[in-house]
Amino acid sequence: MDFKTYDEMSKLLTLNGNIITCPMASLRDAHGAGKLGVTVTNNISAALAHRGVGHNPATLPQQQWESVRLYKLGTTVADLITAATEIGDANDEKVRQLANSTAIEDLKKVREIVCG
C-alpha cells in the first residue's frame, strides 16, 4: 500500500485491521526524506514508534523498493507478530493457542450467516 504522509499511513492501518505492507519509498516520502540511509531509516523507525506503529523487519531496509510490514502496537495483530517473531517458551505457547483458536472458524460461520 502506498501513502504520502504519516496521517495517510495511520488511516490505512485503521482501514486494514491494524496491519499493512508498504514499500520503503512510502515511508521515505511520509518522512520527507530525499534518500534512504542508516540515519533516515533509524529516524523513520523512531517516528513510527512515536506514532504507536511497529515494523517488520526490525531493521528497516535502505532500498526504496523493499517491502515492510507495519502494524499498530497494542493490538491483537501486534501480539501475534511478537509471539511469532520473538523466541521463547511463553511466545511458543501463545502461537499454539492462536493456532488452535476457533476464532477463524467462528468468523467463517458468521460470514456465512450474514452474507448467505
Helices and strands, in order, run as HEHHEEHHH
Poorly predicted ranges: none
Distance N to C terminus: 30 Å
**Radius of gyration from the CA trace?**
17 Å
Helical run tally: 6
Helix content: 55-70%
Shape: globular
Quick overview:
With 116 residues, the protein is an alpha+beta fold. The chain has helices at residues 6-15, 24-31, 38-50, 76-85, 89-99, 103-115, and strands at residues 19-23, 53-56, 67-72.
Structural write-up:
The chain is an alpha+beta fold and 116 residues long. It has two domains: 6-85, no CATH class; 88-116. The chain is built from six helices and three strands. It starts with 5 loop residues before the first helix and ends with a helix.
Features:
single chain; three-stranded antiparallel sheet; 13% strand; 116 residues
Can you lay out the helices and strands and say which pair or pack?
Layout lengths: L5 H10 L3 E5 H8 L6 H13 L2 E4 L10 E6 L3 H10 L3 H11 L3 H13 L1
Antiparallel strand pairs: 1-3, 2-3
